[in-house]
Amino acid sequence: MSSDEGIKIDIESPEQFEEDVEKIMEEMEEKEKKTLKEEDKEEPTSKETVGEDPEEQDRKQPDPEEDQEAGEKKKHHGKKDKKEKKDPRDEKIAELEDRVKRQMAEFENFRKRTDKEKSGMYDMGARNVIEKILPVIDNFERGLENVPEGSNEAFADGMRMIYKQLTAELDKLGVKPIEAVGQPFDPNFHNAVMQVESEEYGSGTVAAELQKGYMYHDTLVRPSMVSVVS
Predict the structure, then answer these.
(1) Angstrom distance (rounded) from CA 62 to CA 67
(2) For the chain, what is the radius of gyration of the CA atoms?
(3) Of 34, 48, 118, 130, which has the maximum CB count within 10 A?
(4) Tens digits of per-residue pLDDT, 117-138?
């Protein structure tokens, strides 16, 4: 080989060397890429499954029922804490409301009791007044029954009008006469002063009324004085 040829070889060899190096680098890069892809395929899908027993994995998995019980315990515990941490102002308001309700109930009972007492006092006073007026009614009846014949009819008519007005006012107040004649004897309303024989009425029947009895609403003011068939 001549000296010219050696020089030519020396000049071309660096270029060839660079091409060879580039090829080698490309081949190495391709090999590394392939190696990385193969390693990625061989790696496990999750860290928990690597080198672990399936039974141990099942034990480590959370139980939904246990989680639910734990949640309920936390919830109840939270409610208990809320109850324990009740605001003092709410307790004071509840206490005041209870006191007001009790006082209102007591006042309502007092009002009903007072109304009943007032009504009883009014009825008692009315009965006292009625008892004092009844003898006047009796005298009017006796006088009208014994008006002499030939007396002043205008005077007698005036007496009858006064009697009628008086009895009408008593009726408006709730004062009514007790039915006696022809009724079975009732010791609750009749006061028997004698026994008589009668062909018109049976035994135990009121034959005659000697003095009228009166009721004030449902209360007896005066029993009827009667004679009863024996």
Answers:
(1) 7
(2) 62
(3) 130
(4) 888 888 888 888 899 999 999 9
Q: Residue 223 and residue 216: Cα distance in Å, rounded? A: 12
Instruction: Name the phi and psi angles at 162, rounded to 5.
Output: -65, -45
Structure-token pair, residue 228: 């009863």
**CA 37 to centroid of chain Cα atoms:** 77
Q: Which residue has 């009972």 as its token pair?
A: 109
Q: Token match 């660096």: residue? A: 14
Give the C-alpha separation, 194 to 185, whole Å. 12
**Same domain? 161 vs 129:** yes
Helix, strand, or coil here: 43? coil
Q: In this structure, are 109 and 147 located in the same domain?
A: yes
Cα(first)–Cα(last) distance of the chain, in Å?
Answer: 185
Which of 133, 155, 173 is the last residue before a domain boundary? Answer: 173
C-alpha 135: how far from its chain's center?
55
Element (H, E) at 106: helix 88-145
- 224 DSSP β-pair partners: 190
Domain with residue 219: its CATH number is 2.30.22.10
Distance CA 148, CA 158 (A): 15
Condensed to tens digits (0 to 9), the pLDDT of residues 27-72 reads 777 877 777 777 666 555 444 444 445 555 555 555 555 656 655 6
Q: How many domains does the chain have?
A: 2
